[in-house]
Structure formats: structure tokens, C-alpha cells
Amino acid sequence: MSDSHMSEARFRLALKAVRQGAWEFDLRTNEGYRSPELVQLLGVQQAHPTLSDFLSNVWPDDRPLVVQTFGQLRRGERDESVLQFRYRRDDGQTVWVEQHTLVERDEYGEACRLYGLSRDITLRKQAEQDLQQLNATLEARVAERTRELEAAAMRLATQNAALEARTMALEGFAELARGLTMQADPQVLLRRALEFALSVLPEGYGTYSQLEDGLWRTKVLVGNRRNAELQQVMEAGVPYDMMPSLSEPWSTRQPLYQAVYAPGSDLDEKLGSAIHALATLPVLVKGEPVGILGVVLFEQRPWAHVDKVVLETVARSLGVAMENARGVAELAQRTQELERSNQELEQFAYIASHDLQAPLRAVTSFAQLISDRYGALLDERGQVYLRQIVSNGQHMKHLVDDLLAFSRLHTQRRALKPISSAAVLATVVERLKADIEALGAQVAWDSQALPSVLADRGQLDSLLQNLLQNALKYHRSGVAPHVRVSAERDAGFWRFAVTDNGIGIGQQHFERVFEIFQRLHSRAEYEGTGIGLAVCKRIVEGHGGHLWLESTPGAGSTFYFTLPAVPVPEVKTKGAPWRVAHRDAGHGI
User: Fold this and answer.
1) H or E element: which one contains 300?
2) Rg of the Cα trace of the chain?
3) Could you tell me which residues are beta bridge partners of residue 549?
4) Residue 529 is inside which H or E element, if any?
5) What is the residue-wise DSSP string for 103-148?
6) Which residues pair with 277 in a beta bridge?
7) How far apart are CA 276 and CA 296, in angstroms?
8) pLDDT at site 101
9) d(CA 57, CA 391)
10) CA-CA distance, 39 to 411, in Å (whole number)?
11) In a 3-state reduction of DSSP, which class is residue 545?
């Protein structure tokens, strides 16, 4: 095989590989040539077609563009072209063809021949169509999603408007109600609520109506009805069934909005001639209607969503305010009754404990005389009985004394003055010196660190004495009591701490120990009346402070209490940094 034939074979193989075919067309003879690859690619029989033969297979819709381009090439207006068009095969199938055309010119520059390559781009066109369809589907989906988002945005805007309106209503209502106490006249609150509702609406008037004995009566009116006869009728009372605009929201518990009010739908047509739009809303307290809030406008108006939110928020807030007013009034009444009862009980406790002192003193005194003078004449059982009389008489005297001290905390109050807590503590420790020495105890404090406080000196004395006695009394067997008193500043108060190393208290009893007559141990174990810590609690709370404890059973307790600080620069008590009181008199108390 010659080189020329081998080159042509390779060329044709290459054309077949890339699904292309070569062609030529003689412009002078009107004869064409198609390579075997092109004949096969186009699915036709003619290998030497005329222009008419070629155009007859071009898709009708694409034929004008092909003819136009062919004319431009023939006339020499173009030297090259690339066309894409649809071509009908002999078997009726249609393929997409991309045709690349070049112009050959003669020695005079005239176009004499066209030649080029054509290839099948059906698969590419199908892919483009599929991509276009996919794009169209995606665009449709995007458009649909956009519409959904726009609808959601619109709903959100509506909700935001409603939220802003509700917030505005709440803030406005809170502003107009500010300064009102719950004991104020409810009509004042109703009037202000109506004034606020009308302030965000066109001209009109507002009412609050109640049902009394089957009759609707206007209890509050804000604005002018512009109808004196209607005013008189509503003041006199209208039967329940004759006012559907009031009875319907009353029975349904739902607002009623009328953008176009029909005169005569409630009363005589003449009475409602000035009413053009109407909104009536039930005011609910604990879910039950107590009245109807009404807003009348002198012009027709479709009630906007924001209008409804404002009115319904005002009605709801009004119901809550009225419910709270009832609760506060009832609480105030119960509080007053409780205070009166407490005063009577305290007065009774004071009188009873005071009047019991004389006979108790007589009983214990005479029992002691009998024991001293005639005790030797009694047998063993008689002496036991007599000791029981003396012991119980003394216990009753302590109980009466403590009860009298407890009642005096309220009946004998004095003005608070700056008092040196260190000085009062020193006095108390000196008074308890015998008990401290008997127990081998220590009571320690820093006299310079203990502050002056605003207090009643006598009550501060009683407070510290009760806490120290409590710490000394509840000591562990075989362990000498050690008590430490300290204080730290806590804002406008001083926080004191009385710490011991005694038997401790279980956490479940922390609150119980401060209740009057509550004891954690029997009298046989520890003597006491169960009043001391209750007295401490009342003293501290009477000074505006707070009393509490922390404790670990078997390791000791710390009682904390706060007292108001003196609102002037303090003058600290002079003395040694630490003073220790115990049985060794050489260390002092």
C-alpha cells in the first residue's frame, strides 16, 4: 500500500473515531461529495448530493438559517462558518449536526468551492436540553420556594406587627397604670385602660358595662356618645337580650368586631345612629366574665390585626389587674385580721405571764420554806414530792419570765440607737462568769473588730445572752466549751457569727429550733423552756435583720445574724486585740 493510500486510510479512521465526516461542494457545477463516514453518519444514500438534495433533509425550522449562511459564503461575504442544525435521516430519525465550512477561492478571488467537516452532536444537544430542563425545574422550584419564603416572611411580618402591637399595648398599659396601687378605685384603672385604647384609634368613645340583675349598665364612659338619649338608656339599664353586641361576647368569652355597625341591631335605630364601627371584648377574671369593654368609632373601619391585638391585650391586662386587685384586697383583709389576732395574743401572753409571776413566786417561795423548815420531818417520798414542787415551780418561773420577755419584744419597742456590740458582749460575759468558770469554758472575741450597730441595747443584750447560754448549755460531754464571737461587714449590715464546739444540730432541725416551745432534747438531758432561740429570731427580725445557722452534728454550730450598721463612721471599741473569758481569773473576762 502506497503512502498516500495509507494516509487516506488513517484520515478516514480518525474521522470515524470522532464521529465526523468530510464533504465538498462545487459552487460552479452544483455538485457535492460526501465521504463514506458522512454518508453513514447522516444515514443517507446519496454520496453526491445537489444543494436541493441537501436542503430537503434539513429540518424546516432550521432551513432559513442554512440557506442564508450558504448565500453569504457563495457571495464571498464570509470565508468560514459554523452551523448547528437538525437533519432528518432517510429512516426518519432526526440528528443534530454541527457543520464547519471553509471557502476556496479561484485566482480571481471568487468563491469556487466549499468544503468542510460535519459531526453528530445529538448527544451533546440532548445533554443541553436535559440541562435546560433541569435548570427550568430548578428555577421553578426556586420560584416556588421563593414564593413560600415570601409568604412566610409576610406571615412573620404580620406576627411581628402583632407582637409589636402587643408589646406597645403592654408597655402603654403599664405606663398608664404606673403609680396605681391595687387598693385604688377599680374605676380609675378602667378609665385609664379605655383612654389608652382610644389613643391609638380614630375618634370615638369607650365604655365598660356590667350585668346587674339582668340589666346592662354602663359603669365607665370615656368620651362623648353624641346621643343624650342613648346615655340615659344605658345608665338606666338595658335587658340582657336587647344588647347582642354585649351579650354575645359575654356568653362566648370571645371578642366581637363589627367593621360596619347596623343601627337597630341592639336598640332602636335612632339610638345607634352615631355608631359606625364597634368592638366589644369580655374582661375575664379567672376565666369568667366580669364586664364588657367596648370601643365605638364614629366612622366605618375594618378592624386591623394590630387593632385587635391592642384591644385584646388591654382587655386581658385589665382582667389580670382586676384579679390581682381582688387578691390584694383579700390578702390585706386577712393580714389585718391576723395582725389584730396577733396583737390580742401578744397582749394576752403579756398579761398572763405578768399576772402569773406573783402566784408562782409565792408557790416557789413557800415550797422552799417548807423544804428548809420542815424537810427533816418528811419521809423520803415526801421529800421527793417537795423537790418536784420546787423544781417545777422554778421551771415554771423561768418559762413565765421567758414568755414575758418574748411578748415584750413587740409591746415595748424602743428607737434604735448606735450601740457598741463589744461593750454589750462584755457585759453579758461578765454576767455569765459563774457558768463559764463552772464549765471550764472559753468565750473569745476581738473587741476592736466588733462594731457598733443600730439596736435596742436591752434586746441586743438578750440576743447575745441567749446565744451564749445556748452554746454553753449544749456542750459535748468531757469537752470544755469554746465559743467565738466575730463580725463582718455585709453591705448596710453587720453579719455576726457565734461559733461553738458543742453537740451540733442536724440539718433537718435548722428551722425548727427557732420556733417557740420547740425542743430537740428532753428536760432531763438539757434544761430549758424552748423560747430562747425564738426570742433571738424575733429580736433580729425586729431590727430588719436575719438569723440562721450552720451546723455539723458532733462538731459544733455557728449561729449567724445581721444587724443594721450605723450610717456614720464607726468608733471602734478600744481594748486588747483579743479578750478571752474562761475559768482562769488571771486572764480576765
Assistant:
1) none
2) 54
3) 559
4) none
5) EEE-TTS-EEEEEEEEEE-HHHHHHHHHHHHHHHHHHHHHHHHHHH
6) 297
7) 8
8) 92
9) 136
10) 126
11) coil
Nearest partner of 346 among 403, 413, 399, 415, judged by Cα: 403
Q: Please, what's the b/e burial string for 563-584 (b: 16 or more CB within 10 A of its CB; e: otherwise)?
A: bebbeeeeeebeeeeebebbee
Mean pLDDT of 561-586: 60
Give the phi and the psi of residue 227 in degrees, each rounded to 5: -155, 100
Q: Is the pLDDT of residue 445 over 70?
A: yes
Running DSSP on this structure, what letter comes out for residue 555? T
The length of the chain is 589
State residue 99's pLDDT score: 93
The answer for residues whose C-beta is within 8 angstroms of residue 5's C-beta and 6 or more apart is: none
List, for residues 256-293, the tens digit of each pLDDT value: 999 888 877 887 777 777 888 899 999 998 889 999 99
Q: How many percent of the chain have pLDDT more than 70?
A: 75
pTM of the model: 0.37
Please return the burial class of 445, using the count of CB atoms within 10 Å of its CB with bins 0-12, 13-18 and 19+: buried
Per-residue pLDDT tens over the stretch 189-199? 788 888 888 87
* Residue 557, C-alpha cell as written in the block: 454550730
Asked if 137 contacts 150 with a C-beta cutoff of 8 angstroms, the reply is no
Q: Is the pLDDT reported for residue 585 higher than 60? A: no
Cell of 436: 463559764
What pLDDT sits at residue 588?
A: 32
What the block records as the C-alpha cell of 121 is 452532536
